[in-house]
Amino acid sequence: MEEFGLGIDLNIFMNEVDINKNMKINFSEFMTAFYDFKKNVKKNELENFFKILDLNHDGRISKDELSEFFTLSEDDEILEEMMWIADKNKDGKISLDEFIAAIDTTL
């Protein structure tokens, strides 16, 4: 499977991260995996992950893009919280700098 520039085989990643084996990563699974990943992460790897989340490649992550990536059993509550934490200038989008800062302060 494709590596998306992270040096991670996505089949292996899904097998390790997708705890409930439904072939989707929910927010809890993501945070657990990302906490472990962050211990050894480099800035360029965070930038590559940001690019994966930035589906329309405009350099910012919207709530809609987050909802495309994560499967959430709750309504929009977790997405709203993610946006509130990361979107420091409150423009409705998360820039790369905001993304990196949110990761650094959250984990």
Topology:
Layout: H1 10-17, H2 27-38, H3 43-53, E1 60-62, H4 63-69, H5 77-86, E2 93-95, H6 96-106
Antiparallel strand pairs: 1-2
Please explain how this structure is put together.
The protein has 107 residues and is mainly alpha-helical. It has a single domain (10-106), classed as EF-hand (Recoverin, domain 1, Orthogonal Bundle). It is 55% helix and 6% strand. It contains six helices and two strands; from the N terminus they run H-H-H-E-H-H-E-H. The protein has helices at residues 10-17, 27-38, 43-53, 63-69, 77-86, 96-106, and strands spanning 60-62, 93-95. The longest helix is centred in the N-terminal third of the chain and has 12 residues, at 27-38. The chain starts with 9 loop residues before the first helix and ends with a helix.
Structural domain tally: 1
User: Could you say which overall geometry the principal axes of the C-alpha atoms support?
Assistant: globular
* Sequence of secondary-structure elements: HHHEHHEH
Q: Tell me the CATH topology.
A: Recoverin, domain 1
Rg: 13 Å
The major sheet is characterized as: 2 strands, antiparallel
What does this entry show, briefly?
The chain is mainly alpha-helical and 107 residues long. It is built from 6 helices and 2 strands, in the order αααβααβα.
State the main characteristics.
globular; 55% helix; two-stranded antiparallel ribbon; 107 residues; Recoverin, domain 1; mainly alpha
